[in-house]
Amino acid sequence: MRSISYFMVIGVPKEIKDNEYRVSVTPSGVVALKEAGCRVLVETNAGAGSSFDDEEYRKAGAEISSAEEVWKAAELIVKVKEPRPEEYKYLRDGLVIFTFLHLAAEPALTSALVKGNVTAIAYETIETDDRMTPILAPMSEVAGRLSVQIGANYLLKSNGGQGLLLSGVPGVPCGVVTILGAGMVGTNAARIAVGLGAEVTVLDADAGRFRRLEGMFGARIKSLYSNSYNIGQAVKAADLLIGAAHVPGARTPKLVTREMVASMKKGSVIVDVSVDQGGCVETIKPTTHSDPVYEVGGVLHYGVANMPGAVPRTSTFALTNVTLPYLLKIATLGLKDAANSDPALKKGINVHQGMVTHRAAAIATDNDWRPLAVL
Q1: Which of 102, 246, 301, 352 is catalytic?
Q2: Catalytic pick among 239, 276, 301, 342
Q3: What is the DSSP letter of 80?
Q4: Of 67, 225, 271, 364, which sits most exposed with the smallest number of CB within 10 A?
Q5: Taking a C-beta distance cutoff of 8 angstroms, is the pair 256, 247 a contact?
Q6: Active site residue 276
Q7: 107 shares its domain with 158
Q8: Which CATH number characterizes residue 262's domain?
């Protein structure tokens, strides 16, 4: 990791994942980077999906370039989602990539980063001493809130669901929402589900989280300790099941078995937000915004791995608010000094010098693990 304190070329490619409309740096972010002494290259129309045109980026001081120029000239590539196979050809020795990676579910990407001798920093594994994930948090808030909104939509008969209104009406029972995980995604899903008037059950293995939920929602939710029996009962009762389990950097444990899914009512809906780390439902698989759902045993499964991309304007601002301070730190101090001065940022480095440096990601992708300190 060489230190670059005098000048850094930062590249902002256009996202090419299916229906991904977010952008990794806003025009105001470009201004901040320019003031820090950086050269910023933005791919043509990179911000269009979030309602930022090329002229706004030019006025902010960015150079508008082709994808090839951005990738080849940049020392540091800033993205929203992981490099796609079409972008693997740009991976090269010494390049730094700063983005969501979710390597536990992406062995092919992991291999490409290792072979390319790239330094890859994953937003989702930047973790503070109190186990908070500051960059993942706002996207978890968005995804958690969206999960109930999306689930309610697919419960409509016209969309393949059982024809259920989650709130119910006077004299008619409300719908049942089961949420697996009481972290940032689960808490925000509970907020929306409670607001809609649904019957809400949240499962987790952390009693402290239950106390926090009780302080927020009181008796409006039920909390259950997460074990196979309780999960099975809660899944069976659910009209809408939200998968919100998360283990930083690791593959998500399969908490819901195929047999549990088979016990659910026909026309019920599963939205597994954890699908980008492999998913906590045995029957889930990644889908896209253009083809978001499929059916297993009469149960609709929604497995879009970039849910916040559906609301790019909100998501882009929320994401860049938390990425820009880290980006500025890397740009002004250089990666080595930035990582050494910030333990949370150091935890984000998943691949370096041809090795996987995040233990959980190495285990999940069947790669050798080397601690960053050794390298």
Answers
A1: 102
A2: 276
A3: S
A4: 225
A5: no
A6: yes
A7: no
A8: 3.40.50.720
